[in-house]
Specification:
Elements (H helix, E strand, L loop, with lengths): L2 E3 L6 H19 L6 H17 L7 E7 L2 E9 L3 H7 L7 E8 L8 H15 L4 E6 L2 H11 L4 E8 L2 E9 L1
Parallel strand pairs: 4-5
Antiparallel strand pairs: 1-2, 2-3, 3-4, 5-7, 6-7
Length: about 170
């Protein structure tokens, strides 16, 4: 990986295409058959990016991993999403969440996700943020996060569908 950096306004089109590629890959791997899932997910990730670029709230972080000028990964930190607040209650709003963690399919298993996680944790500590949540409904991502973060603090059985659990991790830095 050449660099980890903040996104810029001129990255928006590249990032929209990046999200489309990685989410399409996720849909295929996870065998997701939900109408408009791709569009809804891309729209959600672009809204997270817009929130960061507009400096909506000071406690947001968004990072890109680039290799040879190409975006190969993303990660963000923002207020907890609605699903997390619904599951954990209002107390979860006291800590934000790490999300928008994507690595381009051609660059997975090269340490990019781990580098992004390390970089965002460094940023959070500089901002005096010492805890975060991370949630996932994708089985492949859940295996990855179990290796990196240990067992989740909460598993919501059959949250997405029968056999499709939602997992939530809580970490203090």
């Amino acid at each position: 990986m050449d660099e980890i950096r903040d996104p810029r306004e001129e990255d928006k089109e590249v990032l929209e295409n990046f999200f489309r590629v990685v989410i399409e890959d996720t849909i295929a791997r996870e065998e997701i058959d939900i109408p408009y899932f791709l569009e809804d997910e891309v729209e959600d990730k672009m809204a997270t990016l817009e929130g960061y670029l507009s400096r909506e709230g000071e406690r947001r972080v968004f990072l890109l991993a680039c290799r040879r000028g190409k975006v190969v990964g993303t990660i963000s930190y923002a207020p907890c999403n609605e699903a997390l607040v619904d599951i954990l209650g209002r107390d979860s709003e006291k800590a934000g969440e790490i999300g928008t963690v994507y690595v381009h399919p051609e660059y997975q298993k090269m340490g990019i996700g781990a580098s992004l996680l390390g970089a965002i944790c460094h940023h959070l500590l500089e901002m005096n943020i010492k805890r975060f949540y991370l949630d996932s409904g994708y089985s492949g991502a859940q295996r990855y996060w179990r290796k990196k973060l240990g067992e989740p603090m909460k598993v919501v059985k059959d949250y997405w569908d029968k056999g499709a659990d939602h997992m939530i991790w809580y970490k203090e830095l």
